[in-house]
Write a structure and sequence with these properties.
heterodimer; A: 112 residues; mainly beta; 7-stranded mixed sheet; 4-stranded antiparallel sheet; B: 110 residues; 0% helix; 47% strand; globular
């Protein structure tokens, strides 16, 4: 298994632009999570899905952030419009029920 | 959610055992104790988890106090590749989310 696949690995964009981060979870996993990591705030859970349904999006910082999971093998995290304070590493993770999470390698986002 | 307390940093000599402590005095009966680690420039990686009994796997051992208010992650023989931030996390049975604290940064000295 290739693990959790995130793309792109790095993204540099200008303030105000739309950014879309992508994630392919491990086949057979039924839960998917989006995290954000910064030096100041550490790892923050943004949203998680169970069986493609968003369960808890209370960690999404504001309306500029949205996440979708149209099917069991794909999820997106969109920021529109992006701001410099959104610069961070964004991780996607998947799991099967109560087993351990598998994280992707992350997307490093820089908004200038 | 019940919180955990870990030292900010620890050092270990290569090829020696490492004991990483975690306090969780407000743990409830349904909380599992999970450990993850994050190597430099990588995503977090699952290490081990347990509920009441000590657990062993190929990566590490988890020793859980009898009152469950503390636990210790044991790396039996530290290598340079074990240098990482180690997170101790409580996760309720059936809850499908993990909240990471600040963890312990382990430095392994050659």
């Amino acid at each position: 298994d290739a693990g959790v696949i995130q793309s792109p690995r790095h993204e540099v964009t200008e303030m105000g632009q739309e950014v879309t981060l992508r994630c392919k979870p491990i086949s057979g996993h039924n839960s998917l999570f989006w995290y954000r990591q910064t030096m100041m705030r550490g790892l923050e859970l943004l949203i998680y899905f169970n069986n493609n349904v968003p369960i808890d999006d209370s960690g999404m910082p504001e309306d500029r952030f949205s996440a979708k999971m149209p099917n069991a093998s794909f999820s997106t995290l969109k920021i529109q419009p992006s701001e410099p304070r959104d610069s961070a590493v964004y991780f996607c993770a998947s799991s099967l029920n109560d087993y351990g999470y598998t994280f992707g390698s992350g997307t490093r986002l820089t908004v200038v | 959610d019940a919180k955990t307390t870990q030292p900010n940093s620890m050092e270990s000599n290569e090829e020696e055992p490492v004991h990483l402590p975690c306090n969780h005095s407000t743990i409830s009966g349904t909380d599992y104790i999970h450990w993850y680690r994050q190597l430099p420039s990588q995503g977090p990686e699952y290490v081990i988890h347990g509920l009441t009994s000590n657990v062993n796997n190929r990566m590490a051992s988890l020793a859980i106090a009898e009152d469950r208010k503390s636990s210790t992650l044991i790396l039996h023989r530290a290598t340079l590749r074990d240098a990482a931030v180690y997170y101790c996390i409580l996760r309720k049975t059936g809850a499908n989310n993990l909240f990471f604290g600040t963890g312990t940064r382990l430095t392994v000295i050659p």
